[in-house]
Write a structure and sequence with these properties.
heterodimer; A: alpha+beta; Uridine Diphospho-n-acetylenolpyruvylglucosamine Reductase, domain 2; four-stranded antiparallel beta sheet; 14 helices; B: alpha+beta; Ubiquitin-like (UB roll); DNA polymerase, domain 1; five-stranded mixed beta sheet; FAD binding (chain A); FAD-bd_PCMH_sub2 (chain A); FAD-binding molybdopterin dehydrogenase (chain A)
Chain lengths: 337, 191
Amino acid sequence: MTPFSYSRPTSVADAVAALAEPGARLMGGGTNFVDLMRKGVEAPDHVVDVHGLPLGTIGEASGGGLRIGALVSNTALASDERVRRDYRMLSEALLSGATQQLRNRATTAGNVLQRTRCTYFMEPEYPCNKREPGSGCPAKTGFNRIHAILGESEHCIATHPSDMCVAMAALDATVHVTGSQGDREIPFVDFHLLPGDSPEAETVLRADDVITAITLPEASGASRNSVYVKVRDRQSYAFALVSVAAGIELDASGQIADVRIALGGVAHKPWRASGAEGLLRGSAPTEDAFREAGEAIVADANGYGHNDFKITLAPRTVALALNKALGLAQRATGDAR
Amino acid sequence: MSDPRTVGVSVTVNGEAHRLDLDPRVSLLDLLRLHLDLTGSKKGCNQGACGACTVLLDGERVNACLVLAVSCDGQEVTTIEGIGTPEALAPIQDAFIEHDGFQCGYCTPGQILSSVALMDEAARGLPSVIDVDAPPCSAAELSDEEISERMSGNICRCGAYPGIRKAIHAVASGAASTSRVASGAAQPATA
């Protein structure tokens, strides 16, 4: 680790001010950041440790949903009774990620800002356009089993590693930010960027922005009857090869009134599948319809060799997740009758 | 004059208060091992993947290698040295011996801390991905599958997992033998 100075601001305003220092970086739980500093991928001059700021509670949002403080731990968020009941896919996504030790320490905002686990990004002896713009992307022709099939560019085929963010994208969450120019709200689906020709820019955050909270809209049938299905190389403690957050709400006649689909492990950001949702809304929830929706998502997908299997795996995982969500929706409809 | 790069930190470890000035790069694990001479917590991968460094921070298990020591100001840490003593092992330590829960023993301190935390988490009704709807509300209700999932942050390359699961089952169900503690025959069986 290269030397750095360290501060513990006691307010969001102080944290924003501390970020004005050149080379300053924010640290929450540090579960990803400390690792990257040790590897030399991150080399901040100054670390602004916000772990102690009073942003660690979950409360009611003004619109009727939930307001999740930036420093709520993954464990606390996954275990929250309201989250388990009303936003089930979020709880499942969090619990399927990492380990209990990491979930205890990791924070909501830190989860949003975690970096890709692309092997070439993580190892500074390799070139990487994300770590060092213009140096190249060895992943395209290298070992790319975990890499992107959607939304990638010739400059970067890395995936976003978060499970939580996939559920947040499907649930229409909003990111709340405070910076030197004041407060603003960013729809979750617009928060992360596709690589394009500047893969080093991963989010719309400005240098002195601090995430203060994430809000979820009021619970709905599609948020309650929802699941997170994660396919990985081993049963536990592994990143997703492909993951799907899906939720379904049925109308009185058993047709799909609302449906949410987002994918992880396939793109540079959580991949909200709005087109596939559009195909399903208002139609009957059949196995064929689920499979067609999944196929539509990968219609423009590209494989790079080792990750070609994801083009087959993704639609199957979408269909599986939708089937599970349908089961919950039918149970809910049955319970209501 | 103090080094401008060092930061003051107060931590309580196994009930004992410490006040140190540290380079902010020092991890909680290195604070324990190198500054406080508590070498029970092991440095395995040093990247949060193996769990050998697991300690309790304010009662919750964390990977000590991924926590900066200076960020623990005002917090309480429990290490394997705070769980039991060679003369009076904690029930879970006894059960690890009884059920052959370790071989080389390198991962064992972390496994023990994780086991202690796991039983507390179950008692608090924390869910795992196995069952979000109906988490167990006591450690005694944990299935093998649940224990495996909840212990997945602790890697044992010797493969002592069946023994570790048995040890946790034994303590969680109240069936653990306390004879070793009573007889004073509780010597760690490390090679």
